[in-house]
Design goal:
429 residues, alpha/beta, seven-stranded mixed sheet, six-stranded parallel sheet, 12 helices, 19 strands, NAD binding, N-acetyl-gamma-glutamyl-phosphate reductase activity
């Protein structure tokens, strides 16, 4: 009962029955439904004492003690019912998580490009995963050094070449190939795997190289928005970008209500600039500073627009903190919606999603750093109710890269989707 009170906008009790209502914005509407409720309660009779006999048929008639449900009138798109029994959130998530894995066997992972921040985070999660084991890690710069932070076995960095890839693929020594390489680099490795025609191993590419694939060979691996069954049955999975993941999650539930191009003001910690030295990851340049870059036609602008089927304007910036992204997104609306309408829409769409939290407040980037998920909130609507500002945060190295990669590995290998993702590092709503 306490949960119902917390979730409702108001309640009214009479004769042991309680009415909860949601989304009513005027006193007149509330008064009207209370009057109707009171009349129905007054007319109720106990069926054990209120049966009558039909004189002609001998059959008994019973008066129901159930109270009719009423529909709130605040929006035709966001109708919820309120009754004296219980509140049920509409489960409109068309793509729920896959929690019950069917595979309990070990799988071998080869990580190509293990030196970067994403590779290091993925290694840490594989180390704690119940079924995944690293078989090979490749880095030209670290060749010959012992892999740190991995305790399941002793692994030494290799510098795998094309012929090495073919040999390993031919011998079925790798179940999942993870390409953690810069953009434009992984194609020769993918071609080498394809040339063997083994078709048993899975390839996951963390770069942008195959996010715009039109051949049908690659599946875009954003589990919360793209078909999980397609990801689970794919052999080649393109891992989404960090900025793009958070922006899509923040915009998707409103897609049918958008009137014009949304504007995304994105700010990332400097780990997003990679390990290669540049002004965008130089802490001396970044101190007390915010650096805008690629303000038009950024590759993530193209990615977000292509995946949503809705053009967006994306303006990225890099800040002085290490990891974490915050998006402030202005979305023009083609019909009037309240903040509560919009929040309800997001809660319904992401019901059951372990890595997405919907908040009434604007999330802070410092709270998402080191956490495996996305927080979407604020839902600030202007006075005309024709524009909403949504704020989303994500850790660019985790859900924006390695955590999402692990989700895709789990789905493709038929494990529990969240296996290996630390539950205590997920933000709960």
């Amino acid at each position: 009962m306490l949960n119902l009170r917390l979730m409702s906008d108001g309640s009214f009790a009479k004769n042991g029955k309680i009415l909860f209502w949601y989304g009513l914005n005027s006193v007149e509407d509330v008064s009207k439904i209370i009057d109707t409720f009171s009349k129905n309660v007054s007319q109720l009779k106990d069926p054990s004492t209120s049966s009558t006999t039909n004189a002609t048929s001998g059959q008994k008639k019973y008066y129901s003690t159930s109270i009719p449900k009423f529909s709130s009138g605040f929006s035709t798109q966001f109708k919820r019912s309120f009754s004296t029994s219980s509140y049920k959130l509409n489960n409109s998530n068309p793509n729920p998580p896959i929690r019950n894995g069917s595979n309990f066997k070990k799988s071998k992972i080869a990580l190509i490009g293990a030196r970067g921040f994403t590779g290091q985070n993925l290694i840490s999660m594989i180390d704690k995963h119940p079924y995944l084991e690293l078989s090979h890690v490749s880095s030209r710069e670290l060749q010959g050094q012992k892999l740190k932070g991995y305790n399941k076995s002793d692994i030494v960095y290799e510098n795998l070449q094309i012929e090495d890839i073919k040999r390993l693929e031919t011998k079925n020594e790798v179940d999942v190939w993870v390409m953690a390489l810069p953009n434009g680099v992984c194609k020769p490795f993918v071609d080498a795997i394809d040339e063997v025609r083994n078709e048993k191993s899975i390839i996951i590419d963390l770069s942008a190289d195959y996010r715009f694939d039109t051949t049908g060979e690659w599946v875009y691996g954003l589990p919360e928005l793209n078909s999980r069954s397609k990801i689970a049955n794919a052999r080649k999975i393109s891992n989404p970008g960090c900025y793009a993941t958070a922006a899509q999650v923040a915009i998707k539930p409103l897609l049918n209500y958008i009137s014009e191009r949304p504007s995304i003001f994105g700010v990332s910690g400097y780990s997003g600039a990679g390990t290669k030295p540049s002004p965008k990851n130089d802490i001396n340049v970044l101190r007390d500073n915010l650096i805008p870059y690629s303000l038009t036609d950024h590759i993530h602008e193209r990615e977000i627009s292509a995946q949503l089927g809705q053009e967006v304007a994306f303006m990225p910036h890099v800040a002085q903190w290490f990891q974490g992204i915050t998006h402030t997104i202005s979305i023009p609306l083609k019909e009037k919606l309240t903040s509560r309408d919009i929040r309800n829409l997001y809660q319904d769409r992401y019901q059951g999603e372990q890595l997405i939290t919907v908040s009434g407040e604007a999330p802070s980037v410092k709270d998402i750093s080191g956490k495996h998920g996305i927080v979407v909130g604020a839902f600030a609507v202007n006075a005309k109710q024709d524009r909403v500002v949504v704020v989303a945060t994500i850790d660019n190295l985790l859900k924006g890269a390695s955590t999402q990669c692990l989700q895709n590995i789990n789905l493709a290998m038929k494990y529990d989707e969240y296996a290996g993702i630390p539950d205590d590092l997920i933000i709960r709503g």
